[in-house]
Design a protein that fits this description.
single chain; 583 residues; mainly beta; six-stranded antiparallel beta sheet; six-stranded mixed beta sheet; 48 strands; globular
Length: 583
């Protein structure tokens, strides 16, 4: 997935931020996040229903985009405003010849602003450096946010050539710039995500990765365009295994490439590793012992550390007798996934089989599909009153409890008129959640009398789990406050991290862990933190996105963080000082 991010400026190691908002005098236009006098407070947005167009409003955002070094207008930069709730509101536009943009008809709400221009670094509004969260802009009806002015810096470039073991160029190789990011509670190697961060080599083996933000990169190459037959019966072949610069299959031996803003690093030449390619053969059968013809099988990397190599996937179609074959598979750990074609229903079957491929072919792999587990439950309120929302407005989900785990099923959910629900296609341990607007929040999830809100439920394919109850409440906690520096000035370019004292709550999808940015006035606000818990809160700068859930950072942050507690339905204001802790 590519993210459009609104205008990050890094020049000579310094980020240029938006001008600080000024108070609105009578007759002036409101600055970002600042309601004009007499304007109404926004009402909570309802989620957009499937097939329904995004709502239109009366708020406007205007600004300009210029180049960081020269200050010249950046024309045709794409600027996007995205609602931070489920309303689906937002808009997208392009800058004109003077670098100006205007996004109109925005409903009242909180927005993130992003922009993109080929060859420039993409960034989110309010970022001091790449990877941080952006600063939200709060809009009310009829408000015009003016002077949203930013600079775009030129992106860095990594260029080189991919060769074979004889020094000849290899064309058609997929080359990607990858870097470590915080995800799922730890650092994982992922594609950089910027436009131009992947490329295919030309006829001379050349590649050029552009638009890269400053940071440390590794370069990976994946190619199957060259298979060398080595056996006389045409059954043995060598090929190119996934390779990292400067020519190793192991990320631990790869060379890190530091890149500054606008820097062009050339000469990243390396040879692909030649390895024995294997065949993986077997049969795919359903739960009744019958072949599953025309089912799609996918072989993908099985190690979360290999997520950057996700382009190294193979597909195979099951034949009429249930047989299948993958050819030219490099050594490594894989997940063999069997999924039905098209949108699965409650009777759809699937399977995941872990496979380790070495230098030899693998035969007689048996893939047995099964129907996913089914969950039956009901949505209730904590006071027993009838819900004020319609069943169709409730969104029930079941996400995997473990980070980076590929679950076999694609859960399908239906909420009935009596607020009972059925979910099908489930597997593994799942966290059950429900979302509905109008001030309703999940108080707890129960199954068989036990609370499973944060532990999840184990789903065994082919079995049904009964008695799930999702309890919603309107008595949600409400935490807000102001972030200031040591001179009592509001701070907008910081990250506020809220986390529990109990270290066992520091899980990747914990409801007790939150990271957010203050708005353009330095104020933060968050609802529905679980009550009855001892919390800590801290505001820091230069926090990478996802780092707020990193246990190493939280261990250091707890020494300086401010403690607080929240009771059910309590609204509390806590002002905090910017910490000098360096992430």
């Amino acid at each position: 997935m590519r993210y459009l991010v609104f205008v990050l400026t890094i020049a000579a190691g310094t980020a240029l931020l938006a001008q600080a908002p000024q108070p609105t005098a009578p007759g002036q236009t409101a600055q970002p996040g600042q309601p004009a006098p007499g304007q109404p407070t926004r009402m909570p947005a309802r989620p957009t229903r499937p097939g329904e167009p995004p709502p239109k409003g009366t708020a406007i955002i205007r600004g300009t985009v210029v180049a960081a070094v020269t200050g010249a207008p950046v024309r045709r930069a794409q600027v996007r405003a995205m609602a931070m709730d489920a309303s689906g509101g937002g808009g997208v536009t392009s800058t004109d010849g003077e670098g100006r943009f205007e996004i109109k008809e925005l409903p009242a709400g909180r927005y993130s602003l992003m922009a993109q221009k080929g060859g420039f670094v993409t960034g989110q509004y309010g970022q001091r450096r790449p990877g941080e969260q952006g600063t939200p802009i709060e809009l009310v009806d009829a408000q015009t946010a003016e002077k949203v002015n930013f600079s775009l810096a030129r992106g860095g470039v990594i260029a080189g050539r991919i060769l074979d073991d004889g020094g000849e160029p290899v064309s058609g190789t997929q080359v990607t710039a990858v870097r470590y990011v915080f995800m799922g509670g730890g650092r994982r190697l992922m594609p950089a995500g910027a436009e131009g961060s992947n490329d295919r080599t030309d006829d001379q083996g050349g590649f050029r990765l552009f638009g890269l933000p400053p940071g440390d990169y590794y370069v990976s190459a994946v190619s199957r365009s060259m298979i060398i037959v080595t056996g006389g019966n045409n059954t043995e072949a060598d090929g190119f295994a996934p390779t990292y610069y400067p020519g190793t299959p192991n990320i631990g031996e790869a060379t890190r490439i530091p890149l500054k803003a606008g820097q062009e690093m050339t000469g990243a030449n390396f040879a692909m590793i030649v390895a024995r390619m294997a065949r993986v053969r077997g049969r795919a059968m359903n739960s009744r012992g019958e072949p599953v013809p025309r089912m799609m099988l996918m072989l993908s990397p099985g190690d979360p550390a290999q997520m950057s190599m996700m382009m190294n996937m193979s597909n195979a179609m099951v034949r009429s007798d249930g047989s299948f074959e993958f050819t030219n598979v490099p050594p490594g750990r894989y997940n063999l996934q069997a999924r039905p074609n098209g949108m699965p229903d409650a009777t759809a079957e699937f399977a995941i089989v872990p496979i380790t491929v070495g230098n030899d072919d693998i035969d007689n792999v048996l893939v047995t599909t099964s129907v996913g587990a089914t969950a039956h439950g009901v949505i209730t309120t904590d006071d027993g009153a009838a819900p004020t929302f319609r069943p169709g407005e409730v969104q029930v989900s079941a996400t995997t409890a473990e980070p980076m785990v590929m679950a076999g099923g694609m859960p399908q959910t239906k909420v009935n008129d009596d607020f009972t629900f059925t979910m099908s296609g489930l597997s593994d341990r799942r966290l059950i959640r429900a979302f509905v607007t109008g001030g309703w929040y999940v108080k707890g999830v129960f199954q068989g009398g036990n609370e499973v809100t944060d532990t999840g439920i184990d789903f065994v394919p082919g079995r049904a789990v009964e008695g799930i109850e999702i309890v919603l409440t309107r008595k949600a906690t409400d935490l807000s406050g102001l972030v200031t520096d040591d001179r009592n000035r509001p701070v907008v370019d910081a990250s506020v991290v809220i986390f529990p004292v109990n270290r066992e709550r520091w899980t990747s999808q914990s409801r007790y862990l939150r990271t957010l940015r203050p708005d353009t006035q330095g104020r933060y606000a968050i609802k529905a933190l679980p009550p009855g818990e001892d919390y800590l809160i801290i505001a820091v700068q230069n926090l990478e996105q996802g780092q707020g859930g990193d246990p190493d950072f939280l261990d250091r942050a707890r020494e300086e963080a401010k403690p607080f507690t929240l009771n059910e339905g309590e609204a509390k204001a806590i002002d905090i000082k910017l910490s000098k802790l360096q992430p």
